[in-house]
Amino acid sequence: QSVLTQPPSVSGAPGQTITISCTGNRSNLGTGYDVHWYQQVPGIAPKLLIYHNTNRPSGVPDRFSGSRSGTSASLAITGLQAEDEADYYCQSYDGDLSRWVFGEGTKLTVL
Amino acid sequence: QITLKESGPTLVKPTQTLTLTCTLSAFPQNTRQMGVGWIRQPPGKALEWLAVIYGDGYKLYSPSLKRRLTITRDTSENQVVLTMANMDPVETATYFCVHGRTNSGYFQIFFDYWGQGSLVTVSS
After folding, report:
1. Are B20 and B95 in contact (CB under 8 A)?
2. CB–CB of A57 and B115 under 8 A?
3. Digit-coded pLDDT (tens) for A95-109
4. CB of B10 closer than 8 Å to CB of B119
5. Which of B111, B116, B118, B119 to mutate to test the interface with A (most CBs of A within 10 A)?
6. What pLDDT digit, counting tens, does each position of A59-70 carry?
7. What number is the average pLDDT over the span A72-83?
8. Which end of chain A is least crowded, N or C, by CB within 10 Å?
């Protein structure tokens, strides 16, 4: 069980907006460690989507956005597309565990 | 754009030592704001960070695995090597080599480039 909690699954129809939450605690997000997000299509290596809470690498569509407040963070995807169907992971550093941690992942299904 | 490629055995026996090599197209600068690390993912499960070596040579290991892990680098060959001793069948996973960087403190590192991954099966 990870110290970063994500919903196991979310779903949405094409064109809709979905959000994926990542809930931490005082030893990771609550301490001020940043959250980063990754997208993983099954069978392929993860891809960086959001870094330092809100920043998008070049090439990532602006349909993807990140936010963070206190011990929680969220990834929002607007204008959902079939190609967005994948697993999404949040990542941060945990001061108590002294290591980088990932959430358990959220499977996004595009209906 | 940085490319990374993992190489190593696909099968190791229990109690053996796993050695994985990552070859990069460009090596991180001599700074603690860039580094190369290893992350693994058991089939159908989440990602787990293992180790990182920064551009200035500083190393960090997952505390629960620290006694079994060694990460080294050969800057002349643009390679980073991970060894993991005493492998167990539950450690069957895809092992990813990753390039990391941060725009702030070195604990804020994120992983911007990933290798394709190397599936390692631990079985007798």
Report:
1. yes
2. no
3. 999 999 999 999 999
4. yes
5. B111
6. 999 999 999 999
7. 97
8. N
